[in-house]
Every structure is written in C-alpha cells, then in structure tokens.
Amino acid sequence: MSPEFTKSQIALATLGAMIAVSVLTFVADVTQALMVLGSFGASTLLLFVLPEAPLAQPRAVVGGHLLASLIALGCLALFGQTWWAVGMATGLAVGGMMWTRTLHPPAGSNAIIVFFAKPSWSLLLFSTLAGTVLLIALAWAYHRTTRRHRYPRYWRGEPKVAAACMAENGGRRAEVAVAT
C-alpha cells in the first residue's frame, strides 16, 4: 500500500508537478523543441512525491532517460519499427539501467515513446538531456524553497555509507540515518 500523506504534502507535490510540467511545456513552446516526453509525467511523481528515493536521484533520472532513449533510437535505426524491436528496446533499456545502476522506472517507457514518435537523434539532446536536466533543476529549486529535507540526497552515486550497509546486509538495502 502507498504511504499516507498529509494534506500539505499532497498540496506541495501537486504544485511542484504542475510547475515542472508547465515550465517544460513553456520552454517547448518557446523553443519549438520536443521537450516533454510522456515519461516525464511519471518522473515528476518521483521527484515531487518521493524525492528521497534512489529512483528520484539525478543520476537515475538523467542516466535512465538518456540510456533508454539511446537504446530505443539505436534499435529503431537498426531494426525499423517492428513489433519485436519495441520489445527488444524496452528489455535492453531495463537491463541497461540495471547494469549502469541508473534505475528510473518512468524511463522504461521511453523505448515505446521513441517507436511511436519516430524522432530523430536530436531527441537525445533536446528532449531527453535538456528535459531531464531542467526537471532536476526545477525539483532542486522547488525542494530548497518548500521543504526541510535535502534534494538530491546525492548527485552521482549512493553515499559510501549506504553501499557499506548494503554489503553488510547481504546486498539488501537498509535505511540508514546519516548526520550531514
């Protein structure tokens, strides 16, 4: 079951998601660039509702979206728009995110988006990279002004304390309070 949220948490997360997607859409309108991927809606849920989650950290958000889009564009270029290539791209994106430790579930849908939209390779720069970096910047600024916790918890990888706790725990994640 999902956690229970207070009315203020719901209001803040709702406002954050509204602002983030509105800013992305505004930038897309002004620049005439494809800046909004459908998967960004799900990314905003993680960024504004569960910002402490490893799946919401910058490395996961940017890396997961970039990797999934890159794999999908490659599969589309190599195999064309076939039913099996969509599945291959999605599966490879999932495996690639696991291998690179850039798990971000919303990015898993990028392969499907790429196969239906059939964009050019510029999707990597203008939509995926620019869009995710802008989302991270908006989440960072928003959380700095509205919440008491830090976002992001880390920029590139998990803190060494968390990795050490996982090793001691047989690879299972354990929540650890670390004074900063």
Brief summary:
With about 180 residues, the chain is mainly alpha-helical. It has helices spanning about 5-30, 40-50, 60-80, 85-100, 110-115, 125-145, 160-170.
Which features would summarize this protein structure in a list?
mainly alpha, single chain, 7 helices, disordered C terminus, 180 residues
What does this structure look like?
The protein has 180 residues and is mostly helical. It has one domain (7-168). 65% of the residues lie in helices and 0% in strands. Helix 3 packs antiparallel against helix 4, helix 3 packs antiparallel against helix 6 and helix 4 packs antiparallel against helix 5. It is globular and about 50 Å long.
Mean pLDDT: 87
Helix/strand order, N-terminal first: HHHHHHH
Shape label: globular
Count the beta strands.
Answer: 0
How far is the N terminus from the C terminus? 31 Å
SSE blueprint:
Elements: H1 7-31, H2 39-49, H3 58-79, H4 83-100, H5 110-117, H6 123-146, H7 160-168
Helix pairs in contact: 1-2, 1-6, 2-6, 3-4, 3-5, 3-6, 4-5
